[in-house]
## 1
Amino acid sequence: MKSKVTAAAGTLALIAVSAPAAVQVNMPGMTRPMPSKHAAKKKPAAKKAARIGAAKKVKRSSVHGSKVNAAQAGDAHATASHTPTARTTVPTGQDKMQMPPQSTPTPPAPMTMDQGQMQRETSSMPMPSQMPGAPSANGAMVRLNQFMVHSHTSGPRGQSRLTGPGMWMLMYDKDLSSRDHLSFDMMGTPEHLTVGDRGTPQLLQTENVDAMHPHDYIMALELRDSLTLDAAKNERLTFLFAPRGEAAIGPVPFMHRESAEGNPDAPLGHALQDGFHDVSTVLGVEYQIARNSFEATAFSGKDIVWPLPLHSSDSYAVRVNQKIDRHLRIGASYADALLPRDFGGAEHSQFVAAWLTASYPVGMVTLNSSLVWGQGRPAHGAARNSFLEEAVYQHGRDRFYNR
């Protein structure tokens, strides 16, 4: 609207400048003296005056004609341009000198609905600093999940207790270069205070007998350096060091898994599926190419004590993940871990796991689900198997869990 008002004001200014010339051309007689009655009686004088008047008229007509041509040229120039031409007039007392016209940029045409939509889409595109190969992910984030749970289980092994499971996370990311990304993750929990040594009652829980144990104050302290190997960012190599962190065993731990995020209860097969998220002295490497990732970690299976001591590696694990499409993912892992025995000492045990995760939109929300199988093979004793099906459906602020 502002450009239209400016254009209108400029047009009025052009008309005001051209108006005197138009009046002078259309009414030339008002500038000539009218003949008197006495002059009409003297024919010779009248003839002389007529000849002088004709000469002046011819001269005046030639001058007016040049002014008319100049005015017409100015009007034609103003009509050809979308915006008014800025002209500067400098009065000298006798003549008016006109400066050469200065062109001004043409304003954009009124925006249509399609153009407005295109502009919104264009404005939402990443800035040059966010384009591939430029630093983009930098900053810190804090996350906190805290619950209050009252568990009541009946029968000879049943328990009833009020507990407060929860966890907090601190994440920091920094782009060291266009192909080198550094991340730091720290995760802890107040469960030693809010849950206690007896844990949260859960019948048939494999982690502890009929209860989920409280996690340590510091569950993870991980440092990752990720290197992009190609310009298309299809290949990435990541190195991991963690005084306390996750070994490459099983799927993503339940507290971070999309199909269980926000669920305060651990799966009953936690020890056989994803229970190695807080082991000691983890060294790892991950290679990602297209939709596939391959991980290998070495760690210590010794009991974890405060404050985060470092141990030599005595266990290892490998894991592979594949993204089939935008909805489905599959994965599998194998591990050989040295674990303490209940009656003293330690022994090596093997752990095998496989999983399928799915994410599908249902209406305006998404349904996330997982199928997980985990098996533990102790050096002495029979193998134990666990199966898990879980899902979460979120509608607004409400979540509905299935397990």
## 2
Amino acid sequence: GARHRPYGPPPLVRGVRAGCRGGWALVDISAESRPSPDEDYYLIYDHPYSFEADAWIQSGCVTDTPVCIMNAGYSSGWCEESFGVTLVASEILCRARGDDCCRFIMAPPHRIEAHIARYMRDKPHLAARIRKGGIPDFFVRKRMEEDLRQREEQYRRIFEASSDALLILDRDRLVVDVNPAACRLYGYTREEMVGLSARDIVPTDHLHLFEVCERDAAAAGRSGAETVHVRHDGSRVEVDVHVTPLSYQGAPHLLAVVRDITARRRVEEAMQAAARQWQSTFDAIEDLVILCDADHRILQANRAAREAVPGPELVGTRCFELVHGTQEPHPNCPSCTVFGRGEAVHVEMQEPNLGNRWFDVHAYPINNEAGTAVRMVHIIRDITERKRAEEELAKTLADLERFNRLAVGRELRMIELKREVNGMAGKAGLEAPYDLSFAEAGKAGGDLGRRRTRGAELPNTAQGRGGP
């Protein structure tokens, strides 16, 4: 090892050397040491002239633990100032308890135990002696204080960086601390907010909600509500508030976490308005519109569907149970085709379970990203009246066809008779009494109004012989 190895800023090193002249800090520094101005600082050294160990030895006292606490504190204090790093020193061997030397390890508080453990692994012949030592309570407390300080710094950084407004209130509901987000939300500076009462930011008509949160938080450890707060300029802001009991500077306080929900409320209101508009449009459709899942359960139905299908509530019921009155899908059910093939279907079908009424059914799949039909839309129109009209029309057309066949047959027979009369007139040397040119031209089924008879021009004998 080396004595008085100079580390750190020169002025402080000169101060250490000055103190060494009295024997306080004359040390042998091990070559294993790695002193550096950061958390990797590591120093192992022997103190050959510890007055504390000498005092114990000279008095004849016996101890099982190291005794050179002042030396450890003095050395770590000087090095801490020199390197700008928080350090502690632990005596692992001590002449006062029979060891060959007073040996110390110095490092940052959160790493000292790891260094001691590694030293014990590297020096197994000394491990049993070192186990009887450890870190003096003073340095344990110092390490705990350092850990507490670091945690407080972490909490403060989190407190300051939070996007939610954070307010700490005392038992009198006075603000004792706030974060920057709270200042932005309420429009105050931190100095202006500290000292405000809860009544300054909670309007009178909403103060009861704060009192309920306060009471519930005391009973359950946490409480929350959506309410309204007042900004510095008097404007109101909708907020979501969560209140939690908190120990602050050794006294009971409340931590209020406040989030501005104005934008969220606007989105919710817009979504609700859009939903109402969609529902109004959905219900205005005169056709029956039903949305089903792959299990044939009805998820949504418009007003026309709800009014047209009697019985229990539509939503949640399987469509085949409601429409067909069966426990299984109908063999010709369009939904089976939709879910089976993933294709749209259009059918006209008559349903005995609904009074033998006729329906025009369009079924459309709703596919997932993989292209599989997971839902289906039924658009159903009652076409019973149209079907009845079609049946009446078909019956009328059939009657007209029968009548036409009878009328045409009679007309054809009359043409044949007139042709015979014309033939007889020709044989008699007379002019043909009937103009059958239309028939001769193949227009037997044409307009009968085009026929012309000349029976009136014939003599009475001709009319008597050949008139109809």
## 3
Amino acid sequence: RPVGRTPFVVLVGGLMLAGLIALLMLHTLAAQDAFRQTSLQQRLAALTDTEQQLEQKVQVDSSPITLRQRAKALGLVPSVVTGYHRRADGRVVAREVPATSVSPATAAATSTSATSTSATSTSATSTSATSTSATTKHHRHGAPRR
């Protein structure tokens, strides 16, 4: 008995329909991925802009003028290192006074005499003390830090 063409046509038609549906699904998934990629690229661009704005803000807030203004608003004043003191545990601590109460010439003279008296400890400490005597720090009004 000869086999009819109908089952073969149905089989080929089914395979073609399955292939067409698979192709349509792959195309849909590719389109979804393209939309997701576009969305993520837009988000990345927005986050990059935000990062650049924040970096700019940090640079502005870190400028010496801004830091000086903020310190003044908090009641801090510049200080001058007048000498160094070696503690019993071996640490060296700077003696500081508000810059407004000591003139730079007096601070330099005091620093020089303090460094010459402590020169017996080490020459590195003496060199460090002389080179950093002009550094200024901030502390609150009132008694100097010890």
